[in-house]
Amino acid sequence: MTMNHQGRSTSAGEAGRSASHQTFTGNRALDMEEPLIFEIGHMDNCGVDLDETADFAPRLGSHMRQEIVDLPALSEPETMRHYVRLSRNNYAIDAGLYPLGSCTMKHNPRLNEKMARLPGFADIHPLQPISTVPGAFELISELADWLMELTGTNAVAMSPKAGAHGEQCGMMAIKHAIAAKGEERSIVLVPESAHGTNPATAALVGYKVVSIPARDDGTVSVDAVVEKIEAHAGQVAALMLTNPNTCGLFEPEVIEIANAIHEAGGYFYCDGANFNAIVGKAKPGDLGIDAMHINLHKTFSTPHGGGGPGSGPVVLSDRLAPYAPLPFIRKNNEELEVVETTDQLQGNEQPFGRMTAFFGQMGMYVRALSYMMSHGSDGLKQASEDAVLNANYIRVGLQDLMTLPFGEKPCMHEVLFDDSFLNDTGVSTLDFAKAMIDEGYHPMTMYFPLVVSGAMLIEPTESESRASLDLFVATMRDLVMSAKAGDTGRFEGAPYLAPRRRLDETTAARKPILKWVAPEPTKVQPETA
């Protein structure tokens, strides 16, 4: 006899019948089976009454559609139900702990959403006259001041739309600065533990990428950097380093590395994706960086993912400040001036061009500044401390059962395990991650960073309570013990309880089916005598 959470006794037989019970609709109470919208929609339905159009002369010529738009039509209630049901199949930070390492999926305070929806911010248009939106530019300027104060820098490019876009901005500023000095440099140094966008960005801008190996402890050695600099004397344009790095560790020789790259005439680009671990604790400018993008959608409020929106402002040192792209905001005796064209330039301003048509992501700016102002300097510092504390809480709670590739030492905002604890269990890293779905958790980041075989990167963020972390740790421990006990059946077919079973994700990514095609009608074979 077992007891459910409501205290009513439930026999094992009853539980078994409940688990296997089949329904006529395919629904399982509130877990509803939802066909594709193309399968439930009909062209003779419409949720909106549309008047017949008056006669008009089309101007599309040969581009005029020859057939009706092949879209499903639903009534308004059917449309609402369809998307509500779909939304229930999404895992979200509002549903539970999201342990993706390196992605910072944390709670977004609803105050920030309310501020972003104020008409003076939400309803403005990028093409309306600047004179009609002084408040928006004042907010952008205020946010820029906060970013420069938090990073210890003197300039910031606000317009980049996301992290990789910010990387491109910083590297283009570096390339422009090198050209302004009349130099030709062709090499960018990138550690093996870097985000994949780092070498991609360097190559996109036109540089050759030279990799720097990580030490056994997961960090970058200044000696390894100097060795590469000497091997490519006079050709090193920049170093792209993530700090804290993607192994969840702070680079202990970051100042020495910055000095080495500067002495060689190069620039230090810092990937700021993990800035949320050190906000209020350390200023990257004091560590010697020349450029660093900041993922507003990670560090300051808005969980990213699902394609956006993102925002990736780039802070710049004095060495790179003159090359910040257009547009930017200049302060003249407390008056704000929006610099959009080269004829507005003053002094040593030499922007390399524009990164985007307009000014960036206004909604992200509002959310980020709301987050900063509601926390204050002490609150931002505490958020970083809590992010690091939570990651170490998980590390300590699991290190006796799971394996740490760099030993049992403190981590930063995320903790990195490898899959060697699964050796000889018959359970793969993928199996383990899929079994987490049955327990109600999104899997952690898997197989990244590449410097660790079978990597499992977990980032709880600062917004999880101790009770939430305790349940996660207990769940992970149960899964590990089950794997070590030989219960491969729990893993090899997981997830068992999700709306859909395990998918062929590789084929789905490489050969996506982007257009729905109605299946051929089933032919009924005549019965034979």
UniProtKB/TrEMBL annotation:
One Gene Ontology molecular-function label: glycine dehydrogenase (decarboxylating) activity
PANTHER family per the UniProt record, alphabetical: GLYCINE DEHYDROGENASE (DECARBOXYLATING), MITOCHONDRIAL (PTHR11773:SF1), GLYCINE DEHYDROGENASE, DECARBOXYLATING (PTHR11773)
Biased composition (Polar residues): 1-12
Positions of the Glycine dehydrogenase C-terminal domain: 383-484
Catalytic activity entry: N(6)-[(R)-lipoyl]-L-lysyl-[glycine-cleavage complex H protein] + glycine + H(+) = N(6)-[(R)-S(8)-aminomethyldihydrolipoyl]-L-lysyl-[glycine-cleavage complex H protein] + CO2
Signal peptide: none
GO BP terms in the entry: glycine decarboxylation via glycine cleavage system
Gene3D superfamilies in the record: 6.20.440.10, Aspartate Aminotransferase, domain 1, Type I PLP-dependent aspartate aminotransferase-like (Major domain)
Keywords assigned by UniProt, alphabetized: Oxidoreductase, Pyridoxal phosphate
Protein role: The glycine cleavage system catalyzes the degradation of glycine. The P protein binds the alpha-amino group of glycine through its pyridoxal phosphate cofactor; CO(2) is released and the remaining methylamine moiety is then transferred to the lipoamide cofactor of the H protein.
Span list, region Disordered: 1-26
Claim: DNA repair is one of the keywords in the record: no
Enzyme Commission identifier(s): 1.4.4.2
Segments forming domain Aminotransferase class V: 175-305
Pfam families attached to this UniProt entry: Aminotran_5, GcvP2_C
GO cellular component: cytosol; glycine cleavage complex
Taxonomic classification: Bacteria, Pseudomonadati, Pseudomonadota, Alphaproteobacteria, Hyphomicrobiales
Protein name: glycine dehydrogenase (aminomethyl-transferring)
Enzyme class name: oxidoreductase
Organism: Pseudovibrio axinellae
Keyword match Oxidoreductase: yes
